[in-house]
Amino acid sequence: MNPFKSSIYWRLLIWFCVANLLVLFLGSFLTQRFIEYTTAVEINWTALAQDANQSYEGGGAPALANWVAQQRHEGIDVTLYEKGQALSPVRLPSSIQASLPAWFDAGRDILLQPRPGLYLSVQQVVGSDGHVRHLVALSRTHTRLRPQTRAKILLGVQLTLSLLFIGLVGWWVARSVATPVEALRDATRRMAAGELSTRVGRQGGMAHDELAQLAQDFDAMAERIEALVTHDRGVLQDLSHELRSPLARLHLILDLAQRSRDAAEADVYFHQAELEIVRLDRMTGEMLALSRLEGSIPGMSCDNLDLVELVRGCVEQAELEAQARHVELRLTSPGTPVIVFGSASLLERALDNLLGNAIKFSAAAGEVELQVHAADGIAEVSVHDRGPGVPEAELESLFRPFFRGSNAVRADGHGLGLAIVQRVVKIHGGELTANNRDGGGLDVRLRLPLAGANALV
């Protein structure tokens, strides 16, 4: 995975950049304030003026120049003026330079702050020779600190702030990562212990990053596992329940066959036993098909299909059964193809079940109508029969596995056909409905998205 596409990477990068910027600006600000207000060694401007005068009187201009260089090294730009002339070169702003004559004539000491972070001092001193001189000094602090000392203080403050902010950011990032990871570990342990309802959910502090996506994937996986296990348990319970009756009949038939007086009588029982075995085989096959569909087992071959041709093929295959029951099949379809995307084998099985169910419940000399049409991005297959219909209270249960309504005594079956149809339609993103027709009979409608408008679930 490319780390530059990771939201966790960008989250870490952004927060550490923010921490460094905070350290830079806050460190500079606090250092200046620390120098201004917490350093106890304030500059004694009067003593500084006397010291400058002594250096000049003791060694002249060279000695004063050396003294000025030492003071500049300690962060103070200073010189002596005599009769309005600087005894040692100094760089002063033009506005201050213009105000010096007036300050010298005032005959008093001056301490000003022309702008924040800058101090100006004008001190009058009388030499041993009786000459009046003036000290002019500029300093960016009101305290006597060497630049190296200020640099060390700045470095110390920035280092302390860096450790503090990096520690806070590191703690926050570690917490934001550890919280979902711990939730995932706890959920995994509970899942392993058999608690299939376990979900991670959205934990506090969980961002929209890879960990949140992992938690969502875990929840989807857990939900899927729980559904599959619950379904398998349900299928096993239903199958064991439904197999009891045919197995009991088979046991009774074989017992009667053993008690038969001759081979002819036993042959009748063996024929009945064979029919029961066929029913058991058919029921087991339908149960396996339903279980496979409920489990959404991958590997289906899907393609664009002409629903009209698919229905027409199912009608042709059902003709023989319909003729045996004296039921007429009538298909109404558009003159153009109705294209859907899906599995030909599954859709054919669903249509066979629908058609077979309609034929099975139709009265002799009855009629089953099939209609295929498409509108608004939906393809629809309608199957109408004139059978007994279904009581309104039982319509909602019609597609439930093993459900056999009050009219089921009119036909053989296990209550799995329509359940298989519903699941086939569902995995194709469609819908299956059933309603009673006016005048008797059932109207079953199978709706599927047209090709390009659906995706298999």
Your description of this structure?
The chain has 457 residues and is of the alpha+beta class. The relative contact order is 0.07. Strand 4 and strand 5 form a beta hairpin. Helix content is 54%, strand content 17%. About 1% of the residues have low confidence. Among the domains are: 100 residues, Beta-Lactamase; 67 residues, Helix Hairpins (Orthogonal Bundle), CATH 1.10.287; 150 residues, Heat Shock Protein 90. The strands form three sheets. Strands 2-1-5-4-3 form a five-stranded antiparallel sheet, with helices on one face. It has a five-stranded mixed sheet with strand order 7-9-10-12-11. It contains nine helices and twelve strands. It catalyses: ATP + protein L-histidine = ADP + protein N-phospho-L-histidine. It is an enzyme of class 2 (transferase). It is found in: Cell membrane.
